[in-house]
Prior knowledge:
Layout: H1 14-31, E1 33-37, H2 38-60, H3 66-80, H4 83-96, E2 105-112, E3 119-125, E4 130-132, E5 139-141, H5 160-180, H6 183-192
Antiparallel strand pairs: 1-3, 2-3, 4-5
Amino acid sequence: MIHRRKGRKLKRTASHRKALLSNLSVSLITHKKITTTLAKAKELRRFIESLITKSKKAYLAGDGKDAYKLHLRREAQKFLQDKGAVKLLFDEIAPKIAERPGGYTRVLKMGRRLGDAAEVALIELVDYNLEQTDNKGKAEDTKGKTKSDTKKPGSKKPKKSAGKEKSAGKEKAAGKEKAAKPGKKKKEKAATE
């Protein structure tokens, strides 16, 4: 049995691993979804879930608990070391996930990467599963849709069969031109008469 071996080393020293997870957390908070290796995504999930829970606790805390809110914000700042990401986490993400009882992230396997064949995964915040469809800023939920359903209406590829029809039409026209040139046949008919 394996006891007391929680977590993944990711072939890095402790300080490098901490910096890596901090940077991945900042990227996930700012972009709402990132693509990384499966092992990094699963390890990132452990850290980001606790940070989001801290932001949720600060959001749900009463007005008289300003010191507690500040403490939670400083705890997040200690790990993330990015003021913009902390502000985004506590001011934008926390109100949106206030009703969710955990499970704030989703890890989706995306196959293997070319080059080193590492397993690649997409990690995203569950409540931000939105895809921009228009330039106006309207967002559409893509849950349960196939790839062909989410394509833009004006982005159609030309049909390959149309090219074959054109080439077939050229061949027919070439055949008619050959038939239209009576050259030898007229001379032969004139000689026989």
